[in-house]
Amino acid sequence: MFRMTPNIVRNLVVRKSTRMYPVEVREPFAQVRGELFNDIERCIFCGTCEVKCPSQCIQVDKKACIWTCDPFACVFCGVCVDTCPAKSLYQKTKYRSPTGERIIISQQGQPRKKDKAKDRAGESGTPKGSGEEKADPGGDPAT
Amino acid sequence: MRKTVIPFGPQHPVLPEPIHLKLTVEDERIIEAIPNLGYVHRGLERLADIRDFHQMIQVVERVCGICSVIHALCYCQGIEEIMGVEVPPRARYLRVMWSELHRIQSHLLWLGLFADSFGFESLFMQFWRVREKIMDISEATTGNRVIVSVNVIGGVRRNPDPEQIRWVLAQIDWVEAELQRLEDTMLEDYTVKKRTVGKGVLTRQQAYELGAVGPVLRGSGVAQDARQTGYAAYGELHFEPVVETDGDCYARNKVRFRETLASIDLIRRAIHRLPDGEVRTKIKGIKPPQGETVNRVEQPRGELLYYLKGSGQKTLDRVRIRTPTFANIPPLLVMLPGHFLSDVPVVTLSIDPCISCTER
Ligand code: SF4
Ligand code: SF4
Fold first, then answer.
1. How many other C-beta atoms lie within 10 A of the C-beta of residue B177?
2. What does the pLDDT look like over B108-154, one tens digit per residue?
3. A7 and chain B: CB distance < 8 Å anywhere?
4. Is A1 in the B-facing interface, judged by CB distances under 8 Å?
5. What is the mean pLDDT of residues A98-120?
């Protein structure tokens, strides 16, 4: 009849199983596939990630060298990271934190040095607005 | 006595997912149950037309979150069979390890929900606390908690190092010790027995004729388990199905509890025999699948069946999935008549309904 009692008594003396979550966060495991980032300096805009992504959340504009990702459509599968030939994609061990507004990550990169034709055409070392740029085009999903 | 029709579900406190049962009751007793499905149909099979056969792995994993590894395993095995890809032995053993981890977490989830269905809240919490450890193992070894995306065509994507394997063994030892502490409550407690013994009886004959699968079938005394076919590495692990003969809710509960312990044992055996070597065969250069196949594996809820057909294109022609809950609904309709209305949650949960799988 009282078979649960030993468990209950035991639970009174052992350590708590829960954490005070937002205050106390467990260290993530080393191999966790969390939020996706692109090291745009290394990206060669080949478009492999766009083709391979099962949720189709990445768009690569090869001409303009723009890499766009809808982070809320990403399912953290890591397929793009595995297949990226330039190893420019990586995933952190933290998951994306909840947010109230929708954002689209859009990163503008520079054409690769290997792309000689373009290099010769433009003067060397023209700054092209590289680096990360998080734009939040409010009603973007509609378009 | 006048008959009354009472709707049970689609939203009901004990139901994790929406199924609607139209119950005809006379006084308090059920005389007929008619199911109504279709609330969470997502058309995943149809996605095979637009996603290529690699991307379909991520799609089939989402047929059912609770057994994502096993869905992906069945799909990958089918494609490997069509393409004639040999999976390295280490990958086969790792597939067993992850499948069994998923079986444990699914059974623990069910054991908790089942305890909840007859109002045993503290037992529910205990099972889910233990389950959390399994989720941690999944997260540490594969990268994600539930939908782990670890199977690929030709093998697996992760290769745990020896230290991680030792850690997994230590964790499942803890899980086993905790479960043994709960065994007495789940299987012998007066309140549990009062609510489950003799409820929802399915005889061996009925189970066989109605095509029940999984713990529902084995709870009625039929020793049938798709793992006996020896897919992945099960053939080398001397797998024995867990069988009970009473065919009531208590027997199904017992089957699942004992299967959880058996799965822990299987993981240990798989790890002890884990061979070294590659975990993934390169499939570059092999033509996309051309041909058709039927593949079945054992999910926590029963036998899962995939029919795959490809015609050498990047996208498959047809993916047909038959999930275990689909097969277990006719037996449920036989179990319900004759019981009190208050037993419906317990009997319904005893088949471990996974509706999003059934409707895909
Ligand atoms: S696969 Fe890698 S290199 Fe190619 S476009 Fe994507 S991020 Fe850039
Ligand atoms: S992690 Fe998966 S879903 Fe997310 S962008 Fe990469 S391929 Fe797409």
1. 10
2. 998 888 888 887 888 888 888 889 889 888 888 888 888 888 888 88
3. yes
4. yes
5. 68
* Parallel, antiparallel or unpaired: strands B151-152 and A58-61: unpaired
How crowded is the C-beta side of B12, counted as CA atoms within 13 Å?
Answer: 21
Which ligand 1 atom sits nearest the alpha carbon of residue A42?
Answer: 3
Can you say whether the dihedral through the CA atoms of A118, A122, A123, A124 is positive or negative? negative
pLDDT of residue A99: 82
Identify the architecture of domain B3-348 in CATH.
Answer: Orthogonal Bundle (1.10)
Q: Which ligand is in closest contact with the Cα of A40?
A: 1
Q: Specify the residue for token string 């697996």.
A: B156
pLDDT of residue A114: 53
Below-50 pLDDT ranges, chain B: none
Ligand 2 center from residue A49 Cα (angstroms): 8
Assembly ipTM = 0.72
Render the burial of A30-43: b for 16+ CB within 10 Å, e for the rest.
ebbbbebbbebeeb
Of B123, B136, B139, the CB nearest to A4: B123
Asked if residues A49 and B55 have their Cβ atoms less than 8 Å apart, the reply is no
Q: Nearest CA of chain B to the CA of A57: how many Å?
A: 13
Cβ < 6 A, ligand 1 pocket: A 38, 43-49, 60, 84-86, 88-89
Q: Which of A1, A2, A3, A91 to mutate to test the interface with B (most CBs of B within 10 A)?
A: A3
* pLDDT of A113 strictly over 80: no
pLDDT for res B225: 85
Contacts of residue A6 in chain B, CB cutoff 8 Å?
181
Per the structure block, which two tokens stand in for B96?
Answer: 């067993």
Distance CA B207, CA B302 (A): 13
Which residues 146-165 of B have a C-beta within 8 angstroms of A? 147, 149, 157-158
| Domains of chain A in sequence order | 36-111 (3.30.70.3270)
> CB atoms < 10 A from the CB of B188, how many?
10
CA distance B261 to B149: 25
Q: Which pLDDT band holds residue A62 (cuts at 50, 70, 90)? A: confident
